[in-house]
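Hi V.,

Quick status before I head out on leave. The structure for the redesign project is tokenized and pasted below; the design run finished overnight.
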């Protein structure tokens, strides 16, 4: 019997169920539109070296807050810190305007549980580029914080408060920039910086499962991408991360730039964080595609004159 190989092109797009828009969705949509308008107005009014420096600085700080705090700490617990520092880091993370730490961690853990399946939060292969980039974030499927996904965090009342009132930090940042710096400082320090931060972060969802190289035979389609690693301070080594989620370093080798990890190691030397975990050597040698072959059902191709891959579907004999 012949075999029909299932490829990414043959996968049906899973459309999210239609529901009425909530107040939170409307608020988020209006906020995102205003951020983009503000960024456009800032560029139209023209930059100065100081304004660009401000935008880059706040981008860097808040990108680190997403990658090293929301992702590597709250989502994966790859290092430890004190309860006070945990709270301060959570508040810093909310200034990125990407909702609260508990919401972020709970949805991210769902992504890893169901990566590139129909239940994935933001698989570009299942729902397309725009949904995986921003649509999932504005939709209702994962609008609420799923505390069942984060029992290790849900017991902290201060974190639940920060998660519930996550909007306060961005508003405070906006007010401070406008009050102390004026209109252009607000536009570049918040609108431009946040616009770039938002899209930079979301590229990991929409692009890092599509473009790049694969070192490890994970069952998803995660890839390593140098450019994405640069703009996200190390998150672009996504295949490494899906191979071993318990590591604070996602760049496994010296040439894999991982700025978020470098800063965490500096904080460890200062005693602000500790037990910063790194990928052991035996983990780096396990499940290499070069040795075991591809294991992602969405990427396996049936080779000629070989046994069909597990995703192959038998076709009935003609006649």
């Amino acid at each position: 019997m012949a075999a029909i190989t299932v490829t990414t092109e043959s996968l049906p797009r899973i459309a999210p169920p239609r529901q009425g828009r909530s107040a939170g969705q409307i608020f988020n949509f209006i906020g995102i539109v205003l951020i983009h308008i503000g960024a456009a107005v800032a560029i139209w009014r023209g930059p100065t070296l100081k304004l660009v420096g401000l935008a880059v600085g706040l981008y860097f700080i808040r990108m680190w807050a997403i990658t090293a705090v929301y992702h590597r700490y709250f989502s994966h617990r790859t290092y430890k810190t004190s309860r006070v520092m945990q709270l301060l880091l959570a508040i810093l993370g909310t200034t990125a305007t990407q909702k609260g730490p508990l919401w972020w961690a709970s949805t991210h853990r769902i992504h890893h549980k169901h990566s590139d399946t129909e239940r994935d939060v933001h698989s570009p292969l299942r729902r397309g580029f725009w949904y995986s980039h921003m649509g999932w974030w504005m939709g209702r499927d994962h609008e609420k914080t799923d505390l069942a996904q984060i029992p290790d965090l849900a017991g902290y009342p201060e974190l639940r408060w920060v998660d519930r009132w996550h909007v306060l930090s961005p508003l405070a940042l906006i007010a401070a920039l406008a009050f102390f710096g004026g209109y252009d400082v607000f536009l570049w320090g918040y609108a431009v910086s946040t616009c770039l931060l938002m899209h930079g972060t979301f590229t990991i969802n929409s692009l890092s499962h599509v473009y790049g190289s694969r070192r490890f035979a994970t069952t998803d389609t995660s890839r390593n991408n140098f450019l994405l690693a640069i703009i996200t301070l190390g998150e672009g080594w996504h295949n490494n991360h899906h191979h071993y989620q318990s590591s604070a370093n996602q760049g496994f080798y010296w040439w894999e730039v991982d700025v978020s990890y470098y800063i965490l190691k500096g904080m460890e030397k200062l005693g602000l964080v500790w037990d910063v975990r790194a990928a052991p050597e035996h983990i780096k040698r396990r499940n290499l595609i070069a040795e075991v072959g591809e294991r992602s059902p969405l990427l396996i191709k049936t080779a000629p004159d070989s046994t069909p891959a597990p995703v192959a579907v038998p076709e009935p004999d003609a006649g």
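Above is the designed sequence. Confidence is low (pLDDT under 50) at residues 1-10, 302-319.

G. will cover questions while I'm gone.

Best,
W.
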